[in-house]
Amino acid sequence: MTPDAVGLTAKEAERVRQLCGREPNDLEWGLFGALWSEHCSYKSSKRVLAWLPKEGPQVVAGPGGNAGVVRLDDRMEVAFKVESHNHPSYVEPVQGAATGVGGIIRDIVAMGARPIALMDSLRFGLEGNGQRLRDGVVAGIGGYGNAIGVPTVGGEVYYGPGYAKNPLVNVLCVGVRQSKDAIVGASGARPGQMVYLLGQATGRDGIHGASLLASRDFSADDQDMRPTVQVGDPYTGKLLMEATLAAIETGGVAAVQDLGAAGLVSASSELAVQSQVGLELHLDQVPCRESAMSGYEIMMSETQERMLLVLNSAHGGEALAAISQWGLNATPIGRVTASGRYVLYFGEREVANLEASWLVDGCPLTPAGKDLVAPAFKPMRPSPGSMEEGVEEGFDAGALMAIASDPDCRERRPIFQRYDSMIQTATVWGPDHEVSVLTVDGSPWGLALAVSGIGRWAAVDAYAGGAAAVSVVVSRLATQGAVALGLTDGLNAGNPDKPEVKQAFEQMVLGIRDAARALDVPVTGGNVSFHNETDGAAIWPTPVIGGVGRHFHPTAPVADSLNRPDVTLLLINPALSPSLGGSVWERQHGVLTAYPRVRLSDLAHTVTWLGTAVSDVDADIRAVRAVADGGLWLALVKMWLASAPSVGMTVTLEAVHAMPRLLSEEAGQFLAAVATTRVEATLLQLQSNAIGCLVVGQGHDGDYLELQVGRPSRWTRRWSRSQMRAAWQSWEGDSGGSGTP
User: Fold this and answer.
1) pLDDT bracket for residue 165 (50, 70, 90)
2) What is d(CA 532, CA 470) in angstroms, rounded to the nearest whole number?
3) Which region, left, alpha or beta, applies to residue 303 given φ > 0 means left and ψ of -120 to 50 means alpha?
4) Angstrom distance (rounded) from CA 191 to CA 338
5) Are 535 and 165 in contact (CB under 8 A)?
6) What is the spatial distance between Cα 151 and Cα 136, in angstroms, rounded to a whole number?
7) HEC-encoded secondary structure of 683-712
8) With contact defined as beta carbons under 8 Å apart, do 196 and 316 qualify?
9) pLDDT of 572-590, one tens digit each?
């Protein structure tokens, strides 16, 4: 076997020979190919990811493990992470998405946490193959999540030309565990302990999925990659989840690692390195469901629903008994040694002998950029048909309705109604809201969850897009008065060997870093997906950020709609100079200019004030939404359509720059409905805290939304609820969509 057959470059192959001091055999070449792949080694991103803030008083476990863990209270901890399954979902959308869900669930279980919620972040093209891919992905996510019994409580979907052949399927999973003196993970194995493989019998599915599918660009001829996509079984996944958690509960599990990308070789070598031990594995002892499987096939297989356990001598028998109660067998396949060597046997024959650290940490890393300062902002010229000159040239009621019905803005119910959001009965707010709220059994506090990351924001200015994704997530948590505990990132980009892709990726991470620092939220882990590129066409750099917040009154969420009309509408922390950069409106007009840089210090100050202002269930703020895609206009539309049928709104704006004010998507703005009798007091609070604010309208009796532009009104347009709902729910015969309204 040649090194290039397993995805290694000539330089990497030479490094392997130097480490080994000899020519590796075919199996050893395969091991290096899998672990040194982009997907497993993070060779193009590891040094860049080191820039992110990772520490905080609430952080229990940061990057490097199966998932990040943060402290909810003195008794409960929260494990969470986002993962991608982009390439498999293009080749085989149903199974690619389903196994992505299964894999991220196992990551959470491997931290000893019970999964309680899923969220998805999806990207597709609008033409041709996009709808087929989307429908298959949605079927896969819903089918696996519903069957395994973990609710999908929220998410998002966006569209763009770069996603037509490069769909993005990022899934966030959240789990909870009780705080203990000794928490299980991959670092607890000790010499003399036995290694067990639990779950499905190993087959030939998914071989080289990490090295030859997830770590390369696509071409027009991709059907040859179909065999590298794994097949998921949520029913076995449910048994595996329960059996693993039951075994951990006995105290008999010293270490645990799930088998995901690169299968057994990745799980076992990473466990050895994290525990600083050696391993001896007997491949002929691995249960196989296909005959005559070679040691190479056994190590490279990515068969799903498998877990690697190391049991201790004190309670290992109890752990095995707990596993058997779920109808599964744990098969001993090796033992832990003190040598640091990674030795594989097939029968009596030694078939591989390496240092585990060579596989996990030996891959040469790509240097990171040296300039850690935010790149200079270069304002773009106004796009064709710009509305920057004022209402005379810009006010367009038809354009507003086009925003409401745009694929990036319209209602997502046709997708999320296919997900079970209520199973486990902890969901207070589900996918029909922009932030999900859950109760947590065993804690007086709950969780607020949000996910965001819009590629068109990063298309021109990746730094601004990264900062905006963090800002929107933290803003959405703040609308619930929730304290942000941690972030997880899913970073999606094209071929990192191309200078423009590498530069955009680094700028995206810098934006995330600066926003996380300014908002004082650690990034506890995540995922990088490169090579989202087909026939030389790459996706927009797309940062997906998931956030977890401590919710102080989860059974009484802060409203995002109105049940009575006696309110005044405020735009809090408004854009100082509203820009259409990166907006839906710009994309509709065939051009994107630079997304506005988030005013991070202003946002941090506003988030602190808002969290306090809405924390009281009798607060003056009756309802609040964070402004994001579709700008203030879409926030108004969604707040109104979710309100009581008898409640209307009258929106009043100054004539100058009315449309940019409505359609600017600058992060950090909030639409708040304040009790009319308390408006003056609220405005004084904002003024005393040096937070900007604009009065933009009033509630009223009557089932219509009225927009008045100019004072006195020079242009007026009124929409009935049925007119607006028809636009917002318009799918034009389309059958899909996803996320939150």
Assistant:
1) confident
2) 22
3) beta
4) 5
5) yes
6) 19
7) HHHHHHCCCCEEEEEEEEECCEEEEEECCC
8) no
9) 999 999 999 999 999 999 9
Dist. CA 490–CA 512, nearest whole Å: 11
The position carrying tokens 């601004």 is 464
For residue 118, the number of C-alpha atoms closer than 13 Å in the C-beta half-sphere is 34
Amino acid letter, 420: D
> Which amino acids are annotated catalytic?
39, 85
Q: Which residue blocks in 276-424 are alpha helix, DSSP H?
A: 295-300, 316-324, 356-361, 391-394, 397-404, 413-416
651, containing H or E segment: strand 647-653
Question: What is the Cα–Cα distance from 304 to 156, expressed in whole angstroms?
Answer: 26
Q: What is the predicted pLDDT for the residue at 616?
A: 74
Backbone angles phi, psi at 458, to 5 degrees: -95, -5
Distance of CA 231 to the CA centre of its chain: 22
Looking at the DSSP bridge assignments, the partners of residue 533 are: 538
> Which SS3 state, helix, strand or coil, does residue 4 take?
helix
Strand segments, DSSP code E, in 17-112 are: 59-61, 68-71, 76-84
Q: State how far the Cα of 193 lies from the Cα of 255, in Å rounded to an integer.
A: 10
Q: What is the mean pLDDT of residues 128-156?
A: 93
CA geometry: angle at 496 spanning 494 and 497, to 5°? Answer: 125
Mean pLDDT of the residues in the chain: 91
Task: State how far Cα 83 lies from the chain centre.
Answer: 6
Q: Which residues contact 378 (CB under 8 A, 6 or more apart)?
A: 594
CA–CA separation, 330 and 637 (whole Å): 54
User: Using an 8 Å Cβ cutoff, are 166 and 532 in contact?
Assistant: yes
